[in-house]
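Course assignment 3, question 2. Fill in each field.
Student: A.L.
Task: Predict the tertiary structure for the chain below.
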Amino acid sequence: MRSGTLAPQAMAKSVASIPRSEERSTPQADSPEGDRLEEVKALMLRLATGPSFERLGAIVQEHLYTGGKKLRARLALSAVDALGGEAVDSVGWAAACELLHNATLIHDDLQDSDPLRRGHYTVWVRHGQAQAINAGDLLLMLPFIALEHLSVDSSVRWELARAIARRAEDTVRGQSLEMCLLHGGRWDWASYAEAAMGKTSALMVLPVHGAALLSGRSPEAAAALGDCFRNIGLLFQIQDDVIDLYGDKGRGKVGGDIREGRVTALVAEHLRLCPADQTWLIGILSTARDETSDRDVEQVARRFERSGALAAVFDRLEALEQATLAAPALLAEPRLAAVAKAMIDKVLEPVRPIVAARRAS
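Answer field:
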């Protein structure tokens, strides 16, 4: 963990000066979903500000203005519609899910010492580690405040709050496990999937879990419907691993996961296929980030292709997609199944060109 900041300044840019890249890409801004997504973003910014505009609120707003796909907010909006809930309640719920997700991003960037996200300097770089912790902590609390904007009775509000807390717990435990995989000698697929299911899947499950509660499902039925989206989180993490090494995540140099020493889907598959490479690969992953060369990253990428690890990961993506869409609980809810299919397509959109190009070569 680095100390201090890369760019120590009090407030290098005002909130208004941060490029609002996502606002240009919001689909069908005049559609009902587009209108509600704008309401979600506005509510998030209001909650970040709090009762009076101050420094921490400005820091959080600055982070929110950097963009992002708002996948979890979109999923919450679509799931409420699909399950027959009230559209007016979908806005507060979508905001709650998206605020929690952004809390994890700020803390994750700090833990990984990542200087860039979405093409912008991260919170800890702009404002220091201490303020990044504060910003993430604030965003952890705001989802519960967002529940005040729902017109539901206290029993439903309690179940929603419990869902947020439980899924947040899963996320933190998954993040912690991921950080232990390398030096704990847990390089197998099962360990990788366990960490990803916690770190990433929990926040794909949450929007649907809450949408089902808002639509009158029992707590047990709502949790079961949410769990149908667990594999989509794993899909997201796997494709993210691939793009990190073979694409562009807008976070500086390619191969950030290799430089950070992260056990990815590609690492797990390569060591399954080529166990004799363990000493070599773990040696690179154990090297300090600043000492891992571009040549090291390029060599790892080539070896992953030659070993069949990249192809095996592509096969995992296809199998997970098929398993998700074949889930009995999801098949019993055709409109929600359509939401799942659309979300899978959105999640896999960045990686499909890479899959097509590699399989054509």
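Instructor remarks: The CA atoms of residues 28 and 34 lie 6 Å apart. The beta strands are 116-117, 120-121.
Grade: pending
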